Structures are given as structure tokens and as C-alpha cells.
Amino acid sequence: MSMQRICIVGPGAIGGMMAVHMQRAGYDVSALARSTKVAEINQKGIKLLDGGQTYTAKPKAAVDARDLGPQDLVIVTVKAAGLPWVAEHLQTLSHPDTAWVFVMNGVPWWFFHGFGGEHAGTGLQSIDPGGVLSTALPADRIMWGVINCNVAIEIDGTLNHAHSNQLQLGRPSGSLNGLDTVANVFRAAGYNTDLSPTIRDAIWGKLLVNMTFNPLSVLTMATTDLLLSDPLVRDLAIKAVDEGRAVGEALGIASGPSGAQRFLAPTKPAVSAKTSMLADFERGRALEVSPLIGAVVEIANLVGVSVPFTKALYGLIRLRSQISAQTNPI
């Protein structure tokens, strides 16, 4: 399967960096985005600071998928709220062999597809009310990426890659069919890419950090190192992570180290970084509350695991998000 024509859907921090490096690697890269982002890309391209070097790419950018045509690989890097918009355009960007890769945070709409024992097939109302996404974006077609890559958007729109470029790719079914071809594209662009037959483990392992630090960062306006430096906040983070681990374990998910192992005896010093949710909050954007923490509460209720600290965080950040939306309507 040829992988020459690539479209990045939602070229923000993560997707923008992919666009730059994939174009540098020789691929024919385009971008599908909202009108303001398209105007920005068409005017000045995408500028990336990475490893002490400055790179600029100018992929063809469009609001309408018909202006880009069918692609060999479509990489979706939008926030969860943008998925209905993606579903409107994805078929136009595709031919029968087009690979769809979603590189996103949080619990996906297909989480219980062929998984979960007695809960298999359960739809998550916090993520996909009415099953709209499950119909439009069928799990059998999906490849999923879990990325560890810190990229910030500076005031002038420049992307600044601070650290990490690790990616895990998998399918909801656990099959590795076709993944290596896609992984080679990411590898050519400089990403350390591994294949996973248990992608839910990777999703949940990253989720434990996101469901904790993202809400805490917005509630306190603090970077991750400051959150961990306060013993009371750190203790809350430990408790929330351990609740999340218990939910995952009830479904047979290997969630990695405990909260204490992560935050009391870390293998690396805490990095001073803004979470993606804090960056969105500061820019007046909608917060990814449901996929990062609301779905955890829904799944906890489903499997009968008590998560009082997680529920408290969920209530607080949900209210903060509602007030923010009223103050900064999108």
C-alpha cells in the first residue's frame, strides 16, 4: 500500500509538527482545518522550533475536503469535540485503501468495541451520545495512536517542540494488520513508533495522567512541576490515579505504576509544562472534559468501582468548563 499523499486533519500543535516533519521527509502533505487556521497556513505556513533548529512547511490547506481529494493516509489530531466535523469530511478524503489514524487523548468512542467481557458493545454516552460517532467512524476502520510529545503553540503561532516523540499505534481489535506500513511513515518523520496489540493499555496509561493533571492544572493555573511540589495536591493526584488504575484493572487493563510510584519516586524530575487543557483554557477554547475524565466516571459506574476523588475533580472541572464557555463562547 502506497503512503505518499497524507492529510493532517486538525493541524494544531501535534498535527502541525507532524505536517512539518512529514513534508520534510518527502511526503505530499495537506491539511484540513477551520477557516482561520487555513488562512494562517496559506499565508505563512507552519513554523516549528525543534532540537535547536527552525523548520517551516507550507502544506496545501483547505476548509473543504473536496479541495484536497482522496489521500493515502489521513491523520486526525483534532480535539474530541471536532469529531462530528471530521466525520463529515473523512469519506471525501478517502479511497478504499486509505488508512485512518486518530492521534488523540482520552477514552475513544469505540472503547468497548469487542472488549470488556459482559460490557462489550456498550456505548459511552459521555463520549458518543446516541452512537453517532460509532456509526460514522466504524471501529474496524480505525487505527489509534497514543503519543507522548510536548509541543507548545507560542503567541505568534510558532510550534515549539519541548521534548519526547514517542508514538504507539494499534487497532481496537488488537490486529497489527497494516500498521507497520503506517508506522514507517511516522518513523521517516522522526517519531519513535511502536506497534501495540493492546492499545487500550497505552490509552489508559496516558489517561491516568491526563485525567488528573489536566483538570488540576486548570483549577490551579499551575504547571505540572508546581502541582507535584505541593504535598496536598500531589496526594490528591495519587488518589485519583489509583482510582483510575482500579477502573482499568476491573476491565483487565494493565495501567502501569501506582500513583505513589509515579509521583513520589519518579524516574525523572518533574518537567515544568502546561497541560493541553490549561493551554486550551488560556486561549478561550472548549475543554476536553468528557473524554479525559467524564468517561472514566461513566466507566467506573459501569464496572462498580468507587472513585470519589475522581468524581470530585470531574465536578469541579465540569463547572469550570461551563463557566468558561459562558465567558468565552466559541
Summarize the amount of helix as a percent range: 40-55%
Number of strands: 10
Question: Can you tell me the CATH architecture of the largest domain?
Answer: 3-Layer(aba) Sandwich
The assembly state of the depicted protein chains is single chain
* CATH homologous superfamily heading of the largest domain: NAD(P)-binding Rossmann-like Domain
Strand content: 15-25%
- N-to-C SSE series? EHEHEEEEHEHEEHEHHHHHHH
* Highest-level CATH class of the largest domain: Alpha Beta
Average of the residue pLDDT scores: 93
Give the helix/strand class: alpha/beta
What is Rg? 19 Å
The unreliable regions are: none
Kindly report the CATH topology of the largest domain. Answer: Rossmann fold
Distance between the termini: 40 Å
Shape: globular
Number of domains: 2
